Amino acid sequence: MLFEIFCEYPLLFPRVYENIYRQMMEKISREEIIGKASDLKVIPTLNGIVEKVFHVLGDNNTSFNDLCEIVQYDQAISSKIISIANSAYYSRGVEIFNLQRAMLTIGFDEVRGIITCLMFVENILKKLKLKEQDLLTLWRHAINVACGARILSEKLLIEDPPKVYTVALLHDLGKIVFFLSSDRYSELLKAAVGKGKSIAELERETFGTDHQEIGHIVAVKWKFPADFVNVIRYHHSIRGEDQQTSLIKLVTAADRFTYSINDNSTEGFILEKEKLAIRAEVEKIMNFLQLG
């Protein structure tokens, strides 16, 4: 009970809270976290499909046929896309059984987003056997950032919106390792919000590393595109303007917005105006994936 009070009101007990939390986490070393990241494996539905899909989604020149060529042989993804095409949101009153027709009905950009979500949730998050609540915490935040970053890309005419959406969806990849390493990691996330402190900073204080570094290890191992790897590695880092790519700037701005951090920049203004649209998009995606 006492610990729950500390979690709920960390500002009232800052030093005590930090000491107790540090004691809970001290058994997990930096080396153990990095080792777990290095050993993390994705179990694809078919050999190499995760790697191939993320490679294609990271390419601005991806075509409808490129996507269809990869997913047509995966029964789980194909059936999900056909199911979505027949849902009330997309259905035109004619039942669809063909994958290509289903993809055309949904639309190319929407299909890219749906495939990304399916690959990430079904082939990574669920197969790593995250706790349901941890999965929802990670996934809802990822979707919020992805939707926000894509809107910024569209409004500011920077980068390719579907590519921005995909990389934003993956930006917190390193948190998976922390969730798998500690039953208390979700409480560390709450502490960061309650104290108005960067989660990356709190992770470094507790574990000696953060989800950027850990995510970078995983992203390199899983052979993500270089642009994706950089966003995963630097989306919380303070770097000079000349060192920040447009992808990193978009994802960082959307990430800050989800934590309600005051942002008087152009990006912050745009996201504030689009808040309701982002919320509606997140709920639609959560419903598609049948997540709470």
User: How would you describe the shape?
Assistant: globular
**Gyration radius, to the nearest Å?**
19 Å
N/C terminus separation:
27 Å
Structural class: mainly alpha
What does the oligomeric state look like here? single chain
Series of H and E elements: HHHHHHHHHHHHHHHHHH
Share of residues in strands: under 5%
Number of helices: 18
> What is the makeup of the main sheet?
none
Q: What are the defining features of this structure?
A:
292 residues, mainly alpha, 18 helices
Protein model, in words:
There is one protein chain. With 292 residues, the chain is mainly α. It is 68% helix and 0% strand. The protein has helices at residues 2-8, 14-25, 30-39, 49-57, 64-71, 75-85, 99-106, 108-125, 132-156, 161-169, 175-181, 185-195, 199-207, 211-221, 226-234, 246-258, 266-273, 275-288. The two termini are 27 Å apart. 39% of the residues are buried.
Question: Quick recap of the structure?
Answer:
The protein has helices spanning 2-8, 14-25, 30-39, 49-57, 64-71, 75-85, 99-106, 108-125, 132-156, 161-169, 175-181, 185-195, 199-207, 211-221, 226-234, 246-258, 266-273, 275-288. It is mostly helical and 292 residues long.
